[in-house]
Amino acid sequence: MATFKAVRIDKADKGTTAQLAQFDETELMEGDVTVRVEWSTLNYKDGLALTGKAPVVRRFPMIAGIDFAGTVEASSHPQWKAGDKVVCTGWGMGETHLGAYAEKARVKGDWLVALPQGLSARDAMAIGTAGFTAMLSVLALEKHGISPKSGPVVVTGAAGGVGSVAIAVLSKFGYHVIASTGRASEADYLKQLGAAEIIDRNELSAPAKPLAKERWAGGVDSVGSTTLANLLSMTKYGGAIAACGLAAGMDLPSSVAPFILRGVCLLGIDSVMCPIEPRKAAWQRLASDLNRTKLSEITEEISLDEVQGWGAKILAGQVRGRVVVKIV
């Protein structure tokens, strides 16, 4: 096809514009693998890009969408051939490299992971960047030595994509999961995912004390700012918090007290430039350890022409769990 459908973001006099449009194949960026995109997903970063609420997009025109699953159409990369099923997340897609809300993508073969056996392309995007990030966080906690025997673990932004997958995975492994949310109406949903306790996010929104009562051995935080500072102050001796998001801001109004008086560790989680071997390990664990029934229950499907409206919804906290985008 000379042209294909894509959600195109352009620079405007005031901010940016996003619209479903025809994109010329000759405008695709450099890469040694061309993929027919079948599924993508909606992430918080996608919402920022689609609405222009933050300067996520750093080149124009841009195709939005930070992850996809699809089938290789053409490849000059030695690892991939036409017909291979692949997954791609991060690497600047939708920011500096043309992204996934399109019928076609061209990327570097080194960015791709083979679709794990037993997962469909739709399943992979029901997991998506959010689920992949959640698993990286869980693996980091495991590497630190946190286990179900260590004590409770806390998950913030619990009803969101990262939080939902983190709860499902941690509960399956036998952890006592404490879910922090600002949406009391989602209590039943969180319990069905496996949360043992639910706390209001307001418990973590006041200015943090240097040290507070020890409440959990570890946690997965996608909120940042004061919430993360409170998590650290309430973490048990020798515990750790995996930080993977900044929904409340990039600041961290904390102190060194948790680190030097309780030996707490702050584990930074980056899913964008994560090396390929940890990517493969995380996807294999997701394929084997994530309850597929729970995954289905937390997933909603939309079409490519609905993406723009949903970008505003996810920023407003109106999206629960995961949203997959059917491309073709």
UniProtKB/TrEMBL annotation:
<dbReference type="InterPro" id="IPR013154">
    <property type="entry name" value="ADH-like_N"/>
</dbReference>
<dbReference type="InterPro" id="IPR051397">
    <property type="entry name" value="Zn-ADH-like_protein"/>
</dbReference>
<dbReference type="Pfam" id="PF08240">
    <property type="entry name" value="ADH_N"/>
</dbReference>
<dbReference type="InterPro" id="IPR013149">
    <property type="entry name" value="ADH-like_C"/>
</dbReference>
<dbReference type="Pfam" id="PF00107">
    <property type="entry name" value="ADH_zinc_N"/>
</dbReference>
<keyword id="KW-0560">Oxidoreductase</keyword>
<dbReference type="InterPro" id="IPR014188">
    <property type="entry name" value="Acrylyl-CoA_reductase_AcuI"/>
</dbReference>
<dbReference type="InterPro" id="IPR011032">
    <property type="entry name" value="GroES-like_sf"/>
</dbReference>
<feature type="domain" description="Enoyl reductase (ER)">
    <location>
        <begin position="15"/>
        <end position="325"/>
    </location>
</feature>
<protein>
    <submittedName>
        <fullName>Acrylyl-CoA reductase (NADPH)</fullName>
        <ecNumber>1.3.1.-</ecNumber>
    </submittedName>
</protein>
<dbReference type="GO" id="GO:0016491">
    <property type="term" value="F:oxidoreductase activity"/>
</dbReference>
<dbReference type="InterPro" id="IPR036291">
    <property type="entry name" value="NAD(P)-bd_dom_sf"/>
</dbReference>
<dbReference type="InterPro" id="IPR020843">
    <property type="entry name" value="ER"/>
</dbReference>
